[in-house]
Design a protein that fits this description.
54% strand; Jelly Rolls; 4-stranded antiparallel β-sheet; disordered C terminus; disordered N terminus; alpha+beta; 2 helices; 140 residues; globular
Length: 140
């Protein structure tokens, strides 16, 4: 009986947390939004490699009325970028009107998906990006 209770608690803790998706995929970004010229928006997610295995960030986005720069980076590199430095990014398709991608993530960290509009006109972005993983507790 204790084993069943532990499994239920582990599932609830892992399955409900916004920052720790399990198995079926958890949206990081799943919406359309306007991004004014000269601005950016970030979406944060956390990976805990002790709980999550086989972590993949996968998705697509499209841009109406222009191009944006999109990048995935860890928190320290995001801070570097915010301070006008040149960050090391895990993924970026460059200045684009859209992309489809699949990125494996191996390390525990806080990550950011960033959309930056360096143009002067507002753009509309439609993004569907999710984090997929398995967890050790669900495999018991």
């Amino acid at each position: 009986m204790k084993k069943i209770v532990f499994l239920c608690l582990a599932f609830v803790i892992v399955g409900c947390g916004d920052d720790n998706p399990a198995n079926s995929g958890q949206p990081v970004v799943d919406r359309s939004f306007d991004l004014p010229g000269g601005s950016y928006v970030q979406f944060r997610f956390i990976v805990d490699a002790d709980i999550q295995q086989n972590v993949v960030l996968q998705g697509e986005f499209s841009v109406e009325n222009g191009n944006v720069q999109m990048a995935v980076m860890i928190e320290s590199e995001f801070r570097t970028w915010q301070e006008n430095g040149t960050p090391d990014v895990l993924y970026s398709p460059g200045d684009t009107s859209g992309a489809t991608f699949r990125l494996s993530i191996d390390d525990s960290a806080t990550y950011y998906v960033v959309f930056s509009n360096r143009g002067t006109n507002a753009v509309k972005i439609k993004a569907d990006i999710s984090l997929f993983s398995t967890n050790e507790q669900s495999e018991i």
